[in-house]
Design goal:
alpha+beta
Length: 209
Amino acid sequence: MTAFRIPTAPAETEFTEKRSRFIGHIWPVETEEEARARIEEMKKRYHDARHNCWCYAVRAGGAVRYSDDGEPQGTAGQPMLGVFQKEGVENFCCVVTRYFGGILLGAGGLVRAYTRSAKDALDAAGISEVHRWTEAAVTCPYHLFERVKLACEDAGIPGDAAYGAEVTLRVILPEEGEADFITRITELTAGCCVPKVCGAVLRAVPLQK
């Protein structure tokens, strides 16, 4: 599976340009229905605003949409979308609300303002990269628990632990890293614990700025 990028979290930003307020919102989404619902939510919240411009891109079905919502054609939705395309970000919805301040910005000024608002929102949200990972489980006796736990933390992303007669630890490993992990745990515990591969999972990991 090819890795892809998404917003890490929802975010909201705001700035004023020549008395016009630009309020940017961004969300991670997985369907067009979810994106449309976010857009309608903003239209209701900011019903008194002059413009609620938006864009979104969803991997499922390859949907890519944008709207200038009354601004001159090509000055809002498309420049906003370009911010995300430049960063390779998908599965997002972005809405920029404008409260008109009485001073015309011109086509160039609008493009810059909407681009800035979308970029500010994306910067605030952060970008994560989604990879396919392998989930594994290790069952060990309590006297080996700390040793195995540290090895799991070193190898990947620790998951839940189940406590019973023994402890079962779950760990998310980089794809194709399970063979090395199994060998390491088996050798570390002198064959007492042999990890089992449970399956593949998709997981988003924030990119370092």
